[in-house]
Amino acid sequence: MAEVVLDANVLVGLLDAGDVHHARARSLVDRLQADGHSTVLLDVLVGEAVSVLCRRRDRRTQPPQLEPALGFVRQWFQAGDVTGVQGEATRLAEDILDVVLATQGTLNFNDALLVVLRREGVIDSVASFDQGFDQVEGFGRIE
Fold it and tell me: For residue 138, is it within any domain?
């Protein structure tokens, strides 16, 4: 079966029980694993998810529980479950910026990096709740 990259919005849903996508994210990951897929955590997306949780600390009436969330993130890194792709951004910068421009900013830099990594054959599928990926012909996200 395929390796499926978990987008930052799925990771946030997994890490924040108060997130609107929490149940959906857990169900998605359970379904992927039941279907025999392996989930992939990318360094840039884990970092983006942590940043979202930190921003929510001050903005939400029910802030995320940072300590347990960061405990999971720490375990991912310690277990070697996080794949580093940040260095690829330098090599692929022109293509990434072209995708951001082609989607008129609907896809951010990290999203565009996923598109380019997929085109390059570096990653297989992407699990995401971001409908912006639907603007990219042939991308096909899993939700």
Answer: no
Q: How far apart are alpha carbons 66 and 75 in whole angstroms?
A: 14
- Report long-range pairs for 104-113 (Cβ below 8 Å, ≥24 apart): 106/132, 106/135, 107/132, 107/133, 107/135, 107/136, 110/8, 110/44, 110/45, 110/48, 111/7, 113/44, 113/85, 113/88, 113/89
CATH value at residue 43? 3.40.50.1010
How do residues 85-117 score in pLDDT, each as one tens digit? 999 999 999 999 999 999 999 999 999 999 999
pTM over 0.90: yes
Q: Which two tokens stand for residue 124?
A: 């297989």
Q: How many domains does the chain have?
A: 1
